[in-house]
Amino acid sequence: MAVFTLPPEILPFYKSHIQFITEEAVNPDRRRYAVEGEAERHYIDVDVYGDSAHFTLPRYWQKATEIYPEDTLKAYGIVPWHVYRMKGWLTKAFRERNLEQILKLSADLGHYIADANVPLHTTENYNGQLTGQRGIHGFWESRLPELFVTDYNFFVGKAVYLSKPQEEIWKAVVGSHEALDSVLLFEKQLTDRFKGDKKYSFEERNGITVKVYSREFAQSYHEMLYGQVERQMRKAIKMTGDFWYTAWVDAGQPDLPDFKGGELSEELLLQLQEEKVRWETGEHVIERE
Ligand SMILES: [Zn+2]
User: Fold this and answer.
1) Which residues, listed in sequence order, are joined to residue 200 by a DSSP beta bridge?
2) Any residues with CB less than 8 A from the CB of 142 and at least 6 apart, and which?
3) What is the largest CA-CA distance in the chain?
4) Residue 3: how many CA atoms within 13 Å on its side-chain side?
5) Structure pTM?
6) If pLDDT is split at 50, 70 and 90, which confidence band does 32 have?
């Protein structure tokens, strides 16, 4: 959806590959358990660094490594630093007019930016496991959009140039972390109001009966959050467009030659397919949603 924020110079290029970008955008999650060094790119547990660490943590990786051992940083997640690093990679790909890399990096970058805009991706208590709210991660991130996404408005306007992209991605982390309080608190309040058998219900998925948060519970929670999920998703879409656009501008606004479907290399398509299969056959361990 970030594609539609782009200016006419690059919109057609992205648009003609929208399907690839959409598919590829879920790949970072598929890789999480299979690729060393991947998992930490999706989150940052800012609260382990102290109370207002989201305001004070070094915005630049170099600075951060002067204060904390790299192992520590990686253990608690590196999403904002990684987004900035990827922006550099994408700029380079534009400069070299490496069209496949542009597409792949754009999609991956969009994924990490979206992660940074999810409140539960900024805390050690990422699945409510520390507060007796286990399951809240998927509830906020998947169940709510699944039920209500058709009411969301994803028209976010035009992409703008970011003179300090690093500051921007940190703003996302700060915003997400500020939203975390209500994410946890409202769920707790509602849980007290809904008796055990009303909080969950059962639905059929691919012939299997699964336990889900009930529609009533989800509806009440969604109302209490007052548009928060939609707001965060809109921010992610806008920011993704801004990052793509900024990388292109920083690369000197290169012309993108006509690059229509069917020209993606066998290798890239195969890679995409393999990651998909690996995911679908369950070659991954869910330890952190
Ligand atoms: Zn992710």
Assistant:
1) 213
2) none
3) 60
4) 16
5) 0.90
6) confident
Residue 96 phi, psi (nearest 5) = -85, 0
CA distances from 164 to 65, 87, 101, 243 (A): 20, 11, 23, 10
List residues bridging with 209 in a β-sheet.
204
219 C-alpha to ligand 1 centroid (Å): 25
Total residues found in the chain within this entry: 289
- Taking each helix axis as running N to C, give the angle between helix 228-250 and helix 215-225, from 0 to 180 degrees, rounded to the nearest 10: 60
* Cα 289 to ligand 1 centroid, rounded to whole Å: 8
Task: List the one residue out of 33, 171, 26, 165 whose CA is nearest residue 89.
Answer: 165
The mean per-residue pLDDT over the stretch 114-142 comes to 96
How far is 205 from 11, CA to CA, in rounded Å?
36
Instruction: Collapse the DSSP code of 210 into the 3-class scheme (helix H, G, I; strand E, B; otherwise coil) and give the result.
Output: strand
| Cα 56 to ligand 1 centre (Å) | 24
Average pLDDT score over the chain: 90
* Phi and psi angles of residue 282, each rounded to the nearest 5 degrees, phi first: 75, 25
Instruction: Quote the Cα angle for 17-85-128, to 5°.
Output: 90
Task: Give 46 Cα–ligand 1 centroid separation in angstroms.
Answer: 16
CA distance 169 to 45: 15
Q: pLDDT tens across 148-197, in order?
A: 999 999 999 999 999 999 999 999 999 999 999 999 999 999 999 997 77
Q: What is the pLDDT of residues 265-281, one digit of tens each?
A: 777 777 777 766 655 55
Of 32-41, 157-166, 200-209, 278-287, which range is least confident? 278-287
Q: How far is the CA of 246 from the centre of ligand 1 (A)?
A: 22
